[in-house]
Design a protein that fits this description.
The protein is 56% helix and 10% strand. The chain is built from 31 helices and 14 strands. A 6-stranded mixed sheet has the order 5-4-3-2-1-6. Strand 13 and strand 14 form a beta hairpin.
């Protein structure tokens, strides 16, 4: 037997005889009282359990909760008893009501009830550990013949193992989506690989009990952090003085807890603060990276941190003050990346803070408010060292040639090294080509300090267009997204165009979604054809590999991302038709996320992960009449999602935007969001 950790409190039990059981664990706070029949389907998760079961109707289902079930007229306890008995005549008494709850026919409802067991009244969180140490751990150790291990240590080791596997390397973006819609994913290999990573077998449990130290992760991402979203590059050279300056400032007695790393695009500001965070993470109780391009983006990322540490969402002045108080009393590190120098951003940083703030920005106004470290292009020796590490077979004379024309910009160096390694062009020929393109760029008015980077891109773009056109088209799509990780899984999920409604409660959103689907069907054939090509996982990953060779994208467990300056260079080179097709593709991809129920907690991580891409897409598609229906859909689902997560003020902003788009269709949504208590 083995256990697959699907998502937080959802598990799949894989029995040795081939049977599978879908298990959902729900905690019930005592002050809420027993579960009612109605609550079991929404908050209790039976509807979600059914959604998973209908993809594998041969599986058994189990709902496990510490809460009691209401008896008598409410019939919650009666439902559990009927499911346990499995008698057809008794199940038939519930089939009509359950069919309405699940929006399915009575036969399907009866089959689901036949597969279901509801366990209730189990030990609560406060007593579950001692209960299972006595009733399970001791007996299991004896049965397995394991001696010399305390039952309490064995229990804690197994809990740690489950927590580690459930995180799936903290790839929280789309793990639930993959399992709940397994048949909509074409790359079977990717799904099986993820299942394998999340499966615990008997041998794994025994190893965890006998060697608990194996579960102690040295990675800084195992702390309260989101560093998993961006790992540092392996070839990082130079910057010793700048790193030491940051350490000295943050460690100085009475020193200010804020350092701003300032410099031009492509000089390595974001990489420097990332390297510092990974190197020093063990000194902090939490490390959190937030977007600084706007206060709205920063607050959304701070909301994720607040959830992790048990603070309210920072959507009110009081909640923002609470998280600032947390910074004053907690030794942590905040990375504020690509930060704008606006008052609202300044106000998020408290005075006299135990938490350190490390900022990267183009805006020199930060220097007037906080200690700054000016980041210049790499010195020649460091530029040579980086090139040598990236192109180890080149002779020193060729390394000298390249260093002389690339201007010490790490991003330009990485792109040039990638191009030379892939194309086979000689360094002399590359340098001559770079010089000629630099002249063109200067005539076009490009900033002199950006010429090396822009010229390197111009050469690489020409190669991709001529010899790797699919990879170039993928890069164009990525340039239309936010400069954040984007999950490749979205390319493989197919939209099932259906006309059926989910029920009266969701009729308004269904009507908006129906209009959005009709809009998708009118998209250009080139858009549809391009996305169809990327549904092939081999084709998609070939393109990703091509782009990665040129250091044009960053590949992480959570997906792929593209540097903001590279994105800007790509967009500037795109034709109007290419921009139109690219925008349609992005809308099509985001529509797949917008089809997930924004109020269902199992999909909240998906919306959080994709929120930066939604925000940028909304800016791009406003005013595009051919995309109006999807614009309205995005505004609506984001409003509902943020409201469900308790971020009421942000939800109202999206609802108001939706109201402006369509008074008739959005009015009900606005009232629903605005009138709910904050």
């Amino acid at each position: 037997m083995s256990v697959t950790c699907e998502w937080h409190t959802d598990f799949i039990l894989n029995y040795s005889d081939g049977r599978n059981e879908l298990v959902s664990v729900k905690h019930r706070e005592p002050d809420l009282g027993p579960w009612s029949f109605a609550d079991l389907w929404e908050k209790g998760g039976l509807r979600t359990l059914y959604a998973r079961w209908k993809h594998s109707p041969q599986a058994h289902c189990r709902l496990v909760t510490n809460g009691a079930l209401k008896a008598g007229k409410d019939r919650a306890r009666s439902l559990a008893q009927v499911c346990l008995s499995g008698a057809d005549s008794e199940i038939a008494q519930f089939s009509d009501e359950v069919a309405k709850k699940l929006h399915c026919d009575k036969v399907t409802a009866s089959s689901f009830l036949q597969s279901l067991v509801i366990e209730h009244g189990l030990p609560s969180r406060s007593t579950i550990r001692p209960f299972y140490i006595v009733n399970l751990a001791e007996k299991s150790l004896q049965a397995a013949g394991i001696s010399g291990v305390a039952p309490s240590e064995a229990w804690d080791s197994v809990v740690a193992l489950v927590a580690k596997v459930s995180r799936d390397f903290d790839h929280q973006g789309f793990s639930s989506l993959d399992f709940s819609q397994e048949h909509s994913l074409s790359p079977e290999g990717l799904r099986l690989e993820k299942i394998e990573r999340r499966t615990i077998r008997r041998g794994d449990v025994i190893d965890a009990i006998r060697n608990p130290g194996l579960l102690t992760e040295s990675s800084p991402a195992s702390r309260v952090s989101n560093l998993w979203a961006r790992e540092p590059v392996e070839t990082f050279v130079g910057r010793d003085q700048e790193v030491q300056a940051i350490k000295d400032q943050l460690a100085a007695p009475g020193g200010k807890p804020v350092v701003a790393v300032l410099g031009m695009s492509g000089v390595g500001k974001s990489e420097l603060i990332t390297q510092y965070a990974w190197d020093r993470a063990e000194h902090y109780s939490f490390v959190w990276s937030i977007r600084g391009e706007s206060v709205e983006a920063a607050l959304k990322d701070l909301a994720d941190l607040a959830e992790k540490v048990g603070l309210p969402n920072p959507t009110t002045a009081e909640a923002v003050q609470a998280i600032k108080e947390y910074f004053r009393s907690t030794t942590g590190l905040i990375l504020l990346d690509n930060a704008s120098a606006e008052t609202a951003i300044f106000d998020l940083i408290p005075r006299n803070s135990q938490t350190h703030f490390l900022i990267s920005s183009l805006d020199q106004r930060w220097a007037a408010h906080h200690t700054s470290v000016q980041l210049a292009p790499l010195q020649k020796r460091d530029s040579l060292s980086l090139l040598q590490s990236l192109l180890p077979t080149l002779p020193p004379v060729d390394i000298e040639v390249l260093s002389g024309v690339l201007g010490g910009l790490p991003l330009a160096i990485r792109q040039a090294a990638g191009y030379i390694a892939v194309s086979g062009i000689t360094p002399d020929a590359y340098a001559q080509l770079l010089s000629s393109r630099a002249s063109e760029l200067l005539r076009r008015g490009a900033p002199r300090e950006h010429v090396g980077l822009a010229a390197a891109w111009d050469i690489t773009a020409g190669y991709l267009r001529d010899f790797r056109p699919p990879a170039y088209k993928l890069l164009q799509l990525l340039s239309m997204l936010a400069a954040r990780s984007f999950p490749l899984e979205l390319f493989q999920i197919r939209i099932k165009f259906r006309e059926d409604k989910a029920g009266d409660d969701d009729a308004r959103r269904d009507a908006i979604q129906s209009s959005a689907v009709k809009e998708l069907r009118l998209f250009d054939e080139e858009c549809v054809g391009l996305l169809t090509e990327f549904e092939d996982p081999l084709h998609l990953h070939d393109c990703v590999a091509d782009l990665q060779k040129f250091s044009l994208i960053d590949v992480q467990p959570t997906g792929v991302s593209c540097h903001s300056l590279t994105q800007e260079l790509v967009r500037q080179s795109m034709t109007d038709d290419a921009e139109k097709i690219g925008l349609q593709c992005i809308v099509y991809l985001l529509h797949k996320v917008a089809r997930l129920d924004p109020q269902d907690s199992q999909y909240w991580p998906h919306y959080k992960f994709i929120m930066p891409h939604f925000d940028l897409a909304l800016e791009r598609i406003r005013g595009e009449k051919r995309l109006a229906a999807n614009l309205l859909l995005f505004e609506c689902v984001l409003a509902l999602n943020l409201n469900a997560m308790g971020m009421h003020e942000l939800a109202v902003r999206y609802a108001e935007e939706a109201l402006l788009l369509s008074q008739e269709e959005a009015d009900g949504l606005y009232k629903q969001v605005f009138l709910l208590p904050a």
